[in-house]
User: Fold this.
Amino acid sequence: MTGMRAEETEKAKAMHMHRLLRFGLASLVFGLALWAGLAAFFGPWSSPVAAAALAIAGASALFATLRGRLVGPALAVFALALAVFGFFWSRVEPSNDRPWQPDVARLARATIEGDRVMLRNIRDFDYRSETDYDVRYYDATFDLRELEGVDLYTVHWMGDAIAHVMLSFVFAGDRYVTVSIETRKEIGESYDTIRGFFRQYELIYVVGDERDLVRLRTNVRKDPVEDVYLFRTGVSRASARRLFLDYLREINALNEQPEFYNTGTTNCTTNVYRHTQVNPGPHHFSWKILLSGYAAEYVYENGLLDTRLPFAELRRRSRVNPIALTADRAPDFSARIRAGLPRPGPARPPAASPAALAAPAAQAGTEPSTSPDPR
Assistant:
């Protein structure tokens, strides 16, 4: 009797393991079929036929796996379809030789000699509208010994969760080098978030004058309106130098070896996060990096913004659209939009919001919360 029970237990365990393996295989098939179908449809070929073929092969393999019938033949067909697609997918390579839109036609390049940096192709377009502008670039020399810090821009156009992130490197004498990590679009091409996952766009680091990169977003684009926030950071001179040089290495590398932009992994926020790892200290990953609209709050929580203010108040004061509209084409545009902005003081924990302070005040012996308000 005991032996029969033990045998039944073993059979039950085997069946349970078999179901788990079958479920795991089905999940793998589903994931591969979904990715391949989307890549075929939204990728460089935009092929509904290839997407349908992969979807049919994947669905057949998935159902066969779940039913436990004809699993081998169905998986073999799917594997063959996936291998053929994978072969052609592996041959899709980024290029610097395409009919680019004028605003991304030129790549910046840096020449570094000791503390001297020569930057070429700094974009300085004069905009009458988003599509009507004078194409202008200039070259400039910067002394790394005069690099004073880094400012952070976040640009919002579709709510709090999504933003475009830019860094501006601050040099003595009110000189600024702003870098915007973007998709390099071809003539007639527009940005699509889904296509951005599937090798549709090359990556570009646009090095520009703030009267171009910032004014374009505050003064020129109107549909939709873009809200621009400029945060002064407490990044040290040494850290700013390491970060700037790491940016320059990537800028030069893209001239020799182009890369694809990826909506999820290689974008304006994840690349900034990757560059910051050149500096010492903990670099905790956060969901606020993936949801780029919360990137400034992430920096705030790490003590690099003015934590004497609650984040909601800091953000309110850091919106520069009104002053940018007034400054417009002024030569001192960058100085004007920074006038009166909060700057980090001595390091301290993030300030609590008024709402967070009010609730515990009625409770004796309860410490006020120091969590910043969400954006």
